[in-house]
Amino acid sequence: MPRWPAEAIWEAVAPLLPGFSVEILPEIDSTNTELMRRVRAGQSDPVLLVAESQTAGRGRLGRDWRSAPGASLTFSLALPLAPADWSGLSLAVGLSLARSLHPDIGLKWPNDLWWRERKLAGILIETASVGAARQAVIGVGVNMAPPLQSEGLRTPAAGLRELVPGIDASAALLRLAAPLVRTLKTFETAGFSPFLAGYRERDLLQGREVVLSDGVHGLAQGVDATGALLVHTAAGLQRVTSSDVSVRPRTDSTP
Ligand code: BTN
Fold first, then answer.
1. Average model confidence (pLDDT) for the chain?
2. Mutate to test the pocket of ligand 1, among 37, 53, 64, 140 (most ligand atoms within 8 A of CB)
3. Residue 71 is inside which H or E element, if any?
4. Atom of ligand 1 at shortest distance to CA of 67?
5. Is 239:228 a contact under the CB 8 Å cutoff?
6. Spatial separation of the C-alpha atoms in residues 132 and 163, rounded to whole Å
7. What's the rounded Cα separation, in Å, for the pair 35 and 126?
8. How far apart are CA 32 and CA 139, in angstroms?
9. How far is CA 137 from CA 47, 150, 212, in A?
10. For residue 131, what are the contacts with CB-CB under 8 A and spacing of at least 6?
11. What angle do CA 127, 11, 171 make, to 5 degrees?
């Protein structure tokens, strides 16, 4: 297991987030589930919770998020967040992670990091209101090595060590933690628009045929200033905002 740089992360992040703490656990059901439990129980101080292993990791749309112990970086960050508009948050988070990890990582709307047509990382954002304050729990799973067998997955997996040889989960976390917090602070005051140009540079769907989970298909035309995906369909230009929608690039084998 890696030696986690909890102190270095704390030193980089605490000046940005008063009351911040870092916690590393060998095992938990899910870092998101745990932080949502704590938030609902009234915890309001920001915390970064890292798990070396999750027994019930969760993905978007009610899916499981599985990984073998040591094969991925899994963490969640809980913090009070009060943006005027929440739209585009997952895109800004994805952009921050990609920028921290490697120039060649692309973004697949709305929550995935991809490399060479394979999924490298996923983001699960949940929120809860505690009194008047809103807390966000930002969960991130990064594959470190490609799973030995990724045939069973909806999307084949990539591993960060393919792009950054020798990197381990602790080094990846140290790289991305403070920039992620800075991104969240910028998003809180200015929304998605400061991230739009950076998102466009890494937008993997731009100009590609895509299929939405409701079967509608069309040509992806990038995202607008709120982070909505624009898809040119047979019925005209559609603005896709729902976090319940999944999108995949259309391939020759797509029905
Ligand atoms: C997705 O790809 O659908 C999102 C995956 C998010 C996985 C991370 S792992 C850490 C955190 N805890 C969870 O249970 N899920 C997120």
1. 91
2. 140
3. none
4. 9
5. yes
6. 43
7. 10
8. 6
9. 9, 28, 26
10. none
11. 80
| Other CB atoms within 10 A of residue 236 CB | 8
Q: What share of the chain is helix, strand, coil (3-state, %, to 5)?
A: 25, 30, 40
Instruction: Tell me whether residue 37 is one of the annotated catalytic residues.
Output: no
| Amino acid letter, residue 30 | S
How far out from the chain centre does Cα 138 lie?
7
CB 112 within 8 A of CB 91: no
Q: Which residues pair with 143 in a beta bridge?
A: 72
Amino acid letter, residue 103: P
pLDDT in tens, 104-120: 999 999 999 999 999 99
Question: CA separation (Å) from 113 to 91, 118, 224, 249?
Answer: 10, 9, 19, 14
Note if 108 is an active site residue.
Answer: no
pLDDT in tens, 43-59: 999 999 999 999 999 99
